[in-house]
Amino acid sequence: MTAPAAVTGDFLPTVSQRGPRPATVTIGAAFQAASVVVFLLLIAAAWIARAQYDAYADEAARLVSTRPGELDAEHSSNLAMAIAISVLAGLPAGWFAATLWPLFRGPTWLASWPRSAPSPSPGSACS
After folding, report:
1. How far is residue 83's CA from residue 68's CA, in Å, rounded to a whole number?
2. How many domains does the chain have?
3. Region of residue 15 (phi > 0: left; psi between -120 and 50: alpha; otherwise: beta)
4. How far apart, in whole angstroms, are the C-alpha atoms of residue 118 and residue 32?
5. For residue 80, pLDDT beyond 90
6. HEC profile for the chain?
7. Which of 16-25, 89-98, 117-126 has the lowest mean pLDDT?
8. Is 60 within the bounds of a domain?
């Protein structure tokens, strides 16, 4: 007669039981990746435009007489606009990029949660 096998509490299978990823999820992930690229291009365009408008302001200041703080105010407003666009486009870009990885990888955290069965309460019928 053999001894009974020990109960380990490992009720989840070790092999992933997920089926293939639906095509709509793959297409959605591709659109999400494309939107991250578009947001990053928008941020780059904002900083390029800032540099271009700063150069225009410098050139205009050389051609005509300006008040002492006018050029600095123009540079500050260009910088503020580039920062505002970068923050407003960077937040969704960061969010989409962070959530893109689990779409491609799949929910692997689910395979390791929970690993053990809950212990029965003291007054339960099972003993």
Report:
1. 24
2. 1
3. beta
4. 39
5. yes
6. CCCCCCCCCCCCCCCCCCCCCCHHHHHHHHHHHHHHHHHHHHHHHHHHHHHHHHHHHHHHHHHCCCCCCHHHHHHHHHHHHHHHHHHHHHHHHHHHHHHHHHHHHCCHHHHHCCCCCCCCCCCCCCC
7. 117-126
8. yes
In a domain, 67, yes or no: yes
Joined tokens for residue 114 = 């929970």
Q: Is the pLDDT confidence value at 9 over 60?
A: no
Q: Flag whether pLDDT at 60 surpasses 80.
A: yes
pTM: 0.66
Q: Has residue 77 been placed in a domain? A: yes
In a domain, 78, yes or no: yes
Tokens of 5: 């096998």
For residue 111, give every residue at least 6 positions away whose Cβ sits within 8 Å of its Cβ, in sequence order, or none: 12, 14, 16
**Given the structure tokens 């989409």, which residue do they identify?**
96
Q: How far apart are CA 2 and CA 11, in angstroms?
A: 23
